[in-house]
Amino acid sequence: MNDFVRVHSRIISKSVPTIQNPDVRRALADRIRYYNELGIYDFYRREGAPIETVEAATEVAPAPEPISQPEMPAKKSITPKPVESVLQILTPNPEQSVTDPIAGLKLIREDIGDCTRCKLHAQGRKQIVFGVGNPHADLMFVGEGPGADEDAQGEPFVGRAGQLLNNMIKAMGIRREDVYIANVVKCRPPGNRTPDRDECDTCGPFLMRQIATIKPKVIVALGAVAAKYMLAINAPMSELRGRFYDFMPTGARASDPNWQGAKLAVTYHPAFLLRDPRQKGEAWKDLQMVMKYLGLKPPPKEPV
Ligand code: SF4
Questions:
Q1: CA separation for the pair 228, 206 (Å, rounded)
Q2: Which candidate among 50, 77, 93, 204 keeps its CA 20 to 30 Å from the CA of 250?
């Protein structure tokens, strides 16, 4: 056993290069599915073994393409591609063994545990704010992180901004209980500051797993932090809004026959709309685009 090191997906997610060759990835995925069907989920990697040896084992000509992990700000793609590393395929997340999203979300929450993975755990958080809503939702809202009210109550978007979000959801003809709401980071940044890049990078994979488990039709990114993190695009809100993006969360199975990803729209964060109510009309345009896609109608006006 000394020659082997057990690999945990959360440890290797950033350190293992991506297999670029689609034939190799498909061959690996098929092989892993075969092992999973046999009930084998844990795999081992020989310490220090170059990743190319895994490619060679599939008897496919080695792909000489460069392997790189570009920094988020430099990436300028409007249709983000899923990133499947070899070991993400080799070590499926626990929720991938269940089909029920309620059970899947529970497994992700258990995996987070009493998390100390990023520095936010030691900066005054009261509790982890995982997410709330319908695990079968067609529509998901994603903000950047919990504030003071959310930290106190353990639920995202419950303060004044949450009230406004509730009103926005109601104006779409649905209820808060119909959608799922989560944030990029699960712990409150001190003083409600914007989460740092390293905090988003550390916590964000849990959001990706929530999305892959819920499989929504549409995701609405609330504000620039959530939008830039999910899309890996460094652009102003004026450029990010007003269109749909094809979105597949990092690590999701691109071959899933039940879900080919979500449409992602960007709108203003409700906290920003509280500070600048003149932008509410613009946000309503974004929501109308989503409503049209989902076939939602505004509720009839209540009699005066
Ligand atoms: S923000 Fe996320 S990664 Fe950081 S401590 Fe909280 S749960 Fe863990």
A1: 16
A2: 50
User: Does residue 185 have its Cβ closer than 6 Å to ligand 1?
Assistant: yes
pLDDT, tens digit, for every residue of 40-50? 555 545 444 44
Ligand 1 centre and the CA of 112: distance in Å?
8
Atom number of ligand 1 nearest to Cα 195? 1
Q: List, edge to edge, every strand of the sheet that includes 218-222.
A: 132-133, 180-183, 139-143, 218-222, 262-267, 245-247
| Closest residue by Cα to residue 130 from 116, 117, 113 | 113
Angle at 83 between CA 77 and CA 89, to 5 degrees: 170
At 68-106, the pLDDT tens digits run 443 444 444 454 444 445 555 557 899 988 999 999 999
Residue 108 Cβ inside 6 Å of ligand 1? The answer reads no
Determine the pLDDT at residue 26.
59
Q: Per residue, what are the HEC states of 68-105?
A: CCCCHHHCECCCCCCCCEHHHHHCCCHHHHCCCHHHHH
Phi, psi of 77 (to 5 degrees): -105, 145
Global pTM value: 0.73
Among 17-21, 95-99, 143-147, 160-164, the least confident range? 17-21
